[in-house]
């Protein structure tokens, strides 16, 4: 009776074979399929909530000095050169550690470096808050920049690699909204704390309002350090290292939170291996990283870097850098570096001068309250430079009849709140538009508008028009700067991604340094040169953005 069943109904004997072969072929999924299967839900929301203090810590590290300089100039006896160094030294620290952080993030993982980076930054910010001299403050600001360079680049990569392509571009705009929220809270804190005349002595330490302000800005980094303990390592990074079992666990964790279903019900049981291994071309004897799909029966592949202990670690670092200086990626990487140099030179130069500019506008309007003449930007800049010189002379003279006064009121920071609020609204609009028109068009359009606003500020004849143009400039510049990072993540493979972001941020911070040095130097030549410089770099960035080889909703390499 068994033979007729075999001939008439061939299904029962082949059932075992069907249960073995097809699942292996169908269940072996690449990263994009697995991240889509994990879905979007509670995990992603919690991740974005945790990213808010992380983004705030990044903004606070680079922007705090521009708010406290008017308050601290008498306590620390700051000259114009000292103010410039304090504004720029954070970027110097970031530049000096860019390559180190990029290498560590691409070889040791994203999550661990976020934890270590934000812990170290918390210590540096608190050290700066307790500083009693300008030299101490400069040292801690440099160290803070050194520590914060990594978490910024790693955060962008980490968030990108934990979202599917459907949500990836919009997530970058949400990160921009987070930066806008951070920019909004900073002048809010300054408005509440800096006008106070606190002077508390603890043993030999003298603590004033600006030091309390700096200490409070350490809270976001401290909170980020704690929160990232509860999130998994990037599954994209794990898969690129052959650690597919850990990557699958990460996907299951995401799926469990998003769907509220058991981890074992995750539809994907096996991941395709995406180990980047060096493949030698015998003709030219070149070593090029190639994404190799190893047999899908192997769930776990040993990471090549762990096979040769510490000697291979240094060698792998040079191997990782080599593709950036060879033909496939050399031209594109240089293009991205130069683009970010132009964008951040214009953006951060204007952004760091705005608190001083708005404080001068507030004082100048109070001074000219009885007069009907218009408030031109040239008059305001001249007044700002002269005021700093007068304060410096008052400090240098040890005459008790001459007092160094700090004129800080809550209204001093009103215009900064307006600029930050405008940026928040614009980012929300950009978040809806990015999936329709793409990152490339938003980036090019933003740089074009920012370039026009910069040169337009020269003809500004009132405080209201100056604030409006500055708001539009900073908003468009911020959106464009975030878009450059998003574009870089899409253009390069995962083994080079964080290194590329770190290097392009290094060039961007170099632009920020040079811009903040050139801007006051050009002010001595007149009103047009400083704004013309910023406009020229933003328009150059617009031209370069227009020729980036970007595709909308591209899969991660």
TrEMBL record:
Can you say what this protein is called? Synaptic vesicle glycoprotein 2B
Question: Which keywords annotate this record?
Answer: Membrane, Transmembrane, Transmembrane helix, Transport
Q: Where in the cell is it found?
A: Membrane
The answer on whether this UniProt entry bears the keyword Acyltransferase reads no
Membrane-traversing stretches: 33-56, 85-105, 112-130, 142-159, 171-190, 210-231, 329-347, 417-434, 441-461, 467-494, 506-525, 531-550
Disordered, as annotated region: 1-26
Which InterPro entries does the record cross-reference, listed alphabetically? MFS, MFS_dom, MFS_trans_sf
Entry GO CC:
membrane
Specify the protein's topology with respect to the membrane. Answer: Multi-pass membrane protein
MF terms (GO), sorted A to Z: transmembrane transporter activity
Q: Which PANTHER family match?
A: EG:BACR7A4.13 PROTEIN-RELATED, SYNAPTIC VESICLE GLYCOPROTEIN 2
* Family matches, as SUPFAM superfamilies: MFS general substrate transporter
> Residue ranges of the Major facilitator superfamily (MFS) profile domain?
47-553
Question: PROSITE patterns recorded for this chain?
Answer: MFS
Give the species this sequence originates from.
Answer: Drosophila mauritiana
What Pfam families is this protein classified in?
MFS_1
